[in-house]
Amino acid sequence: MNRRQLIRAANAIAVGTFLPASARAHIRPGHLSPYTLTPVVDIDPGFGAADATRSVPRIGVVSVGGIGGVCLPGLGAGARCLPWLDRSIAIDSYGIELHFMEADRKILVGDGKTQFDPFANCDATRSTVTEIATAVAGLDIVLLVAGVGGTTGSTLAPFVAQVLRDQGILSFGVPVLPHPSESAYRQERAQAGVGKLRAMVNGQIPIANRGTRISPHAVSGLSTSSQQIPRTVEDVCRAIMNPFRMRGPVNVDFLDLQRTLSNQSGDCGVGFAAVTRENGAVAAAHQAINHPLLGQHRLSQASAVLVSISAPLRHFNLRDSQRAWKFIRQQLSVDVWSTFGTAPDDNPRDEITVSILANGIQKA
Is 38 a residue whose pLDDT tops 50? Predict the structure, then answer.
């Protein structure tokens, strides 16, 4: 065995040891990131990579820019609202903003005082790629949230998405658009950022920031907005993760999610709903279809749909779940690819939940 063969064998052992199966499937021999001079591999299994091959995918939320101060509180490991999230990661180029964010891990890019251009400083870029790759080590799915009206989110989010892609991590872009009342310049910057991000992620779920009007009482308006965005991000998390948390008569798995996202053009839409009455699966399905991030019209445009329905064991009724699935299926086009899973769960709130992930939705 010559030196080159020895190095290749060592790299293969390292990839097989540290990366989850979903990442190993995307690593190609000799593949280089466009931002680095060395292959991007997991060099630090510091977040419990020993159990990264478990059947339930590990999911994380990564925020880019100041939006993290709004969407990250309550998310991440040990949070009450989404206790199954593995971790939250905040990335920003401003040190003061980053200091006050609530996240399991924080990454400061650049000097912490000015905007960071990932294409201008090669040494700083290589260091940043390594730090981001280490922070997301062991994750299978990442929700990448960024406010795309400003400079940081529009510039850094596609860069972070490229790192996730090189790591073999399935990524959902969640760009938060500017409020309609904001300047035309910010609207144009946002559309440019959305386009760059869409090219890098596996699926994209834009969030329109229309939940609050500009109020003469600014504090009240900001409070409403700060509640709307994190709740929407929580619904996105639930719609994506719920199918993998249940085992029952009809299962869906990580491969179903990959199939839903493969070879599709357009954006994703998600719907999530929970009801507390017995035999309420159809009612929950109706609410999920009419979720602000989906809607019946957009669902009918989808080319691939993944649906999961769960209920407390004492309320679980397979026939009711099948009626709900039939109701959703009636809203889809004839040639759409779709899959459905249902199972009982240990929901402490005694809720029947319906999650819908639709892909291939064309912009109106």
Answer: no
